[in-house]
Amino acid sequence: MDAQLELLIMLHDVDHLLRESHQEEKELGFKMEESSEGLEKARKRIAKKLRRSVLERYELLLNRYGRSVAPVSKGICYGCYMALPTAMASGKAKNEKVISCPNCGRFLYWIGK
Ligand SMILES: [Zn+2]
Questions:
Q1: In angstroms, what CA-CA distances link 33 with 22, 27, 40, 45, 99?
Q2: Kind and range of the H or E run holding 77
Q3: What is the CATH number of the domain that holds 56?
């Protein structure tokens, strides 16, 4: 798998966890310093390794959709549920480079076959 894509997926996971821990904190009514602090650190570490253009796009998509990376299965983008163009869906470059959905713009990674 492409290294930048791998980082994107990691960043996406961390952001998801961060959101959850913020949500929990809200529900509990107090801050869980340790858990979110570790996540923030991990986030910074990953973000530093990403290309600036990729990171900027990631943040943009995150603000717009709340999720900036979407899995693809059977040629469908699971961000917007649209079928990808055949050339892309059957492309050999699956997970070998950073590409985005032509419809919603989310970064794509292939799961399954
Ligand atoms: Zn899409």
A1: 10, 15, 10, 18, 35
A2: strand 76-77
A3: 1.10.287.1490
The 10s digit of each residue's pLDDT in 72-82 is 999 999 999 99
| Measured distance CA(58)–CA(18) in Å, rounded | 16
Distance of CA 78 to CAs 4, 53, 67, 94, 108, Å? 20, 23, 11, 15, 9
Question: How many structural domains comprise the chain?
Answer: 1
- Residues lining ligand 1 (ion), CB within 5 A? 77, 79-80, 101, 103-104
User: What type of residue is 107?
Assistant: F
* Distance from C-alpha of 100 to C-alpha of 77, rounded to nearest angstrom: 10
Q: pTM surpassing 0.90?
A: no
Residues in contact with 87: Cβ distance below 8 Å, sequence separation at least 6, in sequence order: none
- Domain of residue 58 covers 3-110
Distance 57 CA to ligand 1 centre (A): 15
**Dist. CA 82 → ligand 1 center (Å):** 6
